[in-house]
Amino acid sequence: METLAELFEHTLKDVYYAENAIAKALPKVSKAVENPDFKKAIDHHLEETMGQIKTLDKVFKTIGVKPEGVKCDATDGLLKEAEGLIEEAKGVALDAGLLAACQAVEHYEIARYGSLREWAKVLGNEEAHVFLSEILDQEKAANGKMTNLAVTAINR
To answer: Cα separation of 155 and 2, whole Å?
Structure first.
């Protein structure tokens, strides 16, 4: 990669891989958690994630590239951490640990979508900028919901 356009495309493929991996992992997390509100938030975010994948398809279209992912070591590592918690933790520690793991994923996504959105703007791709802003807003909202769950229920 030598140009911002090449970096944009590579990072777009990175988040595409990430969203698909997250979509596969969320049902396992939902099954493992005990708090019903947390389970509901995870199930809702799975629906959002599926919509985000469709939105990413539209972003790929704006640059004339076939939607595909490239392996994302960061996402794989974060999801592996969540799998470890499912195997090792129980009770309060399980829900609190999984909530923290979910927020780590959200924070990664917020960083990636924030960069992609701004790069789209610099590259003059207003359509991609709008789509990526939409996803970024959803990720920030999901993180806010998890913070609220942590403070009001899970960490008590």
So the answer is: 45
Based on the number of CB atoms within 10 Å of its own CB, is 74 exposed (0-12), middle (13-18) or buried (19 or more)?
middle
Cβ–Cβ under 8 Å, residues 117 and 129 = yes
CA distance 79 to 66: 26
Q: Are 79 and 25 in contact (CB under 8 A)?
A: yes
Q: Is the pTM of this model over 0.85?
A: yes
CATH (one of 3.40.720.10, 1.10.10.10, 1.10.1040.10, 1.20.1260.10) for 4-154: 1.20.1260.10
Predicted confidence (pLDDT) per residue in 11-28, tens digit: 999 999 999 999 999 999
